[in-house]
Amino acid sequence: MKQPSVLKKILIRLKPYAPWLVLTMAAAILSVAGQIMAPYFVGKAIDGILGQDNVDFGRLYRLFAVIGVCIGATVIGQFVLSLANNRIAYHVLASLRRDAFRKIGSLPLRYIDNRAYGDVSSVILSDAEQFSDGLLLGFTQLFTGFATIFGVLIVMFVMRWEVALVVLIVTPLSLVAARFIASRTYKMFRAQAEARAEQTAFADEMIAGLKVVKAYTHEDENEETFGVLNENLRKKSLSAIFLSSTTNPVTRFVNSVVYALVALVGALLAIATAGTAAPFTAGDLTTFLSYSNQYTKPFNEISEVIAEFQNALACAARLFALIEEPEEPSDEGLPALGDVKGEVRAEHVDFSYTAIRPLIRDMNIDVPAGKRIAIVGPTGCGKTTLINLLMRFYDVDGGAIFVDGQDIRTITRRSLRENYGMVLQETWLKTATVRENLCMGNPSCSEQDMINAAIAAHAHGFIMRLPKGYDTVLGEEGTLSEGQKQLLCIARVMLCRPPMLILDEATSNIDTRTELLVQDAFRKLMEGRTSFIVAHRLSTIKNADLILVMREGNIVEQGTHEQLLARGGFYRELYEAQFEG
Questions:
Q1: Which residues contact 564 (CB under 8 A, 6 or more apart)?
Q2: What b/e readout covers 157-166, taking b as 16+ CB neighbours within 10 angstroms?
Q3: Residue 477: which domain range?
């Protein structure tokens, strides 16, 4: 993304804070005015010291009072400037993070599935923080810096244009040097941000899978990989920081040249104008030397800000790239799916995750309401993909899926998903109380309904053994096994009692005895409900009304358990492979 487009987007983000920006500029002008006027009156005070035993104390006292007012104005201006800048920077940061997080909820799952979770979280957390820091530094230094430069120039030209001209002629050297360096740092800082995200993603992945890493004694290999990523980040960071940091010594050198030239020209001018009607006094020379420092100091600060701002722009580009990702097609205005019976039909469905590798081709399913449908097949055959299509996590490439005769693309996603209850092999519970996790799908349920669901899922016993029972905060006060987490997920679905169910290896983490009890609870739950059961253990789906046998994205066989065994096809091969001997 080009810098101008990023800058334009940043300015649009700042538009709601226009009053605060005006206050920032006013505070900067007040602060700079105090800083500029103080040296002027100091110079006049020096001229009030006429010689030994010849000091105009009355004039000095008045000038000291004025200098005190100038210092007070500077302090007040800087305080208000910092207050306004912090408000702008952190409000913009909060809005960007809010928009980025909201965007994740509206993105198609394809976006999340194709990226490391750590990379996405790095954009929301690290990149947003870096952008905010650069924005805050930019406001604080840029406003005061430019105000100081123009203010000092005006005063110097009013006092002595000859000396001011020397300063003005040498200044472009500093600007050229800063621009030359800044123009090359943006790409480096962007590369640094990408390397940081790659490292964050790897660390996140390894921490999440630490048990597997330890089980396969892969610590050394991971450490080596992390070392490579760390070294890559070190090199990119050093390159970016080294180049950006050269702006300061370069501009300081130019500033020293300016100071020396002001001292030389001012001294010669003082000698040349001594005894004239408009002499260049020692006080004037002191003022100009002070102004030369004030004038050149912002160039150092601005050069640092420009380098930091390049980093902020690189981080902002990644943030805006996430925020501007195409969302799922809107279903606003579409009717909701109501009074669901549970009849599901797929007609000539085609789907693939990538265009070069077709997965599902011309799939046809007709499921009457209230039937139990088992989906079996080897790993990678498309079982979970079919679930994704039924829930409309992905849209079909061709054909259509119908619920009660309605194409699911013509109804709202929310109403479709509210009518499905889903238990997956991978459990997910948020950091909240057991009660909040169970009632997620049915917040208005009664206490007794919640307890009955937990009893039916055989979770009530271990819940009551937790420190605070149903009010235990999971992840903080209570630690659960994977099997216990899955029982909570099952209880959560039982509490919703939706007209359609999806059970994707729902009992995979549960022991055999508990599985038999839960299967009994599932049988009661599935009565009168359309149920899709994905299973690897074929013994668990013998009683299904219809078994769909999938292979390489296609349904190769359909029928009951007995019919498929009698047919002697692929299902029989799978079944006998599990029960060989």
A1: 547, 549, 557, 571, 572, 575
A2: eebbebbbeb
A3: 344-578
| C-beta of residue 154 within 8 angstroms of C-beta of residue 167 | no
Q: Count CA atoms within 13 Å of residue 511 on its CB side.
A: 5
Alpha carbon distances (Å) from 516 to 507, 510, 540, 576:
10, 10, 9, 22
3-state SS assignment for residue 442:
coil
Domain boundary among 323, 358, 391: 323
Instruction: Tell me how crowded residue 84 is: count the other CB atoms within 10 A of its CB.
Output: 24
How many structural domains comprise the chain? 2
Q: What is the CATH number of the domain that holds 289?
A: 1.20.1560.10
- 361 & 503 share domain: yes
Cβ contact 187:240 at 8 Å: no
Which tokens sit at 63?
A: 């000038």
- Same domain for 317 and 450, yes or no, is no
CA dihedral 306, 310, 315, 320 (to 10 degrees): 90
pLDDT tens-digit readout, 284-340: 888 888 888 787 777 767 766 776 777 788 888 888 888 888 888 888 888 888 888
**Residue 31 counted as domain residue:** no
Same domain, 315 and 364: no
427 occurs within a structural domain: yes
- Where does the pLDDT of residue 243 fall: very low under 50, low under 70, confident under 90, or very high at 90 and above? confident
The DSSP output letter for 125 is: I
What pTM was computed for the model? 0.64
- The single-letter DSSP state of residue 467 is T
